[in-house]
Amino acid sequence: MSDSNNQSPDLEPSSKKIKINHENDNTVSENQLELKDFILEKVLNNNTVRKQVCLQGKFRDKSGVALVVLEKNAFKNEDLDSKGYFSVDTELKTFFQNDIYGNYECFPRASINGIKTSITYPATEKHIAKFSQQETHIVLETPELYQKLTLPHIEKEQFNLQWVYNILEGKSEQDRIVYDNKCEQDGFVLLPDLKWDGITKETLYLLAIVRRRGIKSLRDLDETHLPLLKRIRDEGKKKIFEKYQVPASQLRVYLHYQPSFYHLHVHFTYLRHEAPGIYAEKAHLLDTVIGNIEMIPDYYKKATLPFTIREMDNIFKVYETNGHVQRIVKPDIENIELIDK
Question: Where is substrate annotated to bind (predicted)?
């Protein structure tokens, strides 16, 4: 899924009006939502490491649940000068000063102090579960479990893919596309991911979305897909270097399993950026995927693949009901009697 804030770094970013693409509608929405109309109902997740908060609420005079995600932006090298953080407009609030040590809070000018904001509206229960803080488990999925449990769940429960088709059919986000190979068999569209502002090199994150429909995930790949995978790898790296000057040796190129949506896509992130979902239980390097298929053409139809599931995910209930995972039972602290030793 993708979103953007394509202002020039020198311009004041607009934090009030946000264009929303409705996942649950087959058309491209031009509705404008304003944050001043957002009414907070619940904090779903406050991640102090990523400096990100996920909020559930509603918009005034509108029906349906809304999710707002606020995240502090990474520092940009070009702002670390006398026109940026060290300009005459920057203010310091002193917390303490002792000998050679000082601790302060910095208030730079507003144009370099924006907060990355994304909105999902109207949000479904699946969206709420995705952004909620909850217990996570690893499942070892055999080919048999995939056919028996995972695949039926995917076919029944997956997110609406209309937003993907809008991009591929030229109906939305065309101004954000970095590269477009229009070959229906082995082509793809390369554009910034939702988690990237499309500007800050330090957090570079792009998605390659394949044009061919019907390839849901890693499990569907075999030797017939090698030309597609190699084209994504080679052309994607080339275009990213041309536009962002990040060399191929500093790109992390991978697929997720399970993916967040079931239309094949490949992630490109800057190696220095610790993006979410880059760890062993989730990410599969594209070069490794290509190598495995070249070695064993139907490798991903035979392999046991690990993946993580969270306790609010519907697929967790499927695996729990069939005895493959067990929910964490937390103690009822309010009813624990204190023992006087």
Answer: 163, 173, 193, 195, 256-267
